[in-house]
Amino acid sequence: MFMNTLRVGIASYEKMKERTRAIARGDLKPSPRDPKIWFPSTERMARILSSKNRDLLEVIRRTSPQSLTELAVATGRKKSNLSRTIKTMQRYGLVQVTELSNGRLAPEVVYKRVELTMELGA
To answer: Exposure of 102 by Cβ count < 10 A (0-12 exposed, 13-18 middle, 19+ buried)?
Structure first.
């Protein structure tokens, strides 16, 4: 279930609140090309999209694990660590987790690429 591109933006909490209020007032109409997910800093985005986490996304995409245990075996990472990472990635829209009939959680990569939008300067 791949979608092409997840558009992400970098903006302070104040800028995000200001944007949300402008949308609510009708002063701003979001474009389909606007970011869907916002990070409060480049550092936060870098933690979520670190090379280790991008490798994890590739393993998920390539192997389609049917449980976190299966993913732990494929990656050599601890299940508890994977669970936290997957939950964070899910919050940011990078993965979707499906509960299977046997109660297992199966992660799936949602997007093929991430596109970044951010203003340079204050």
So the answer is: exposed
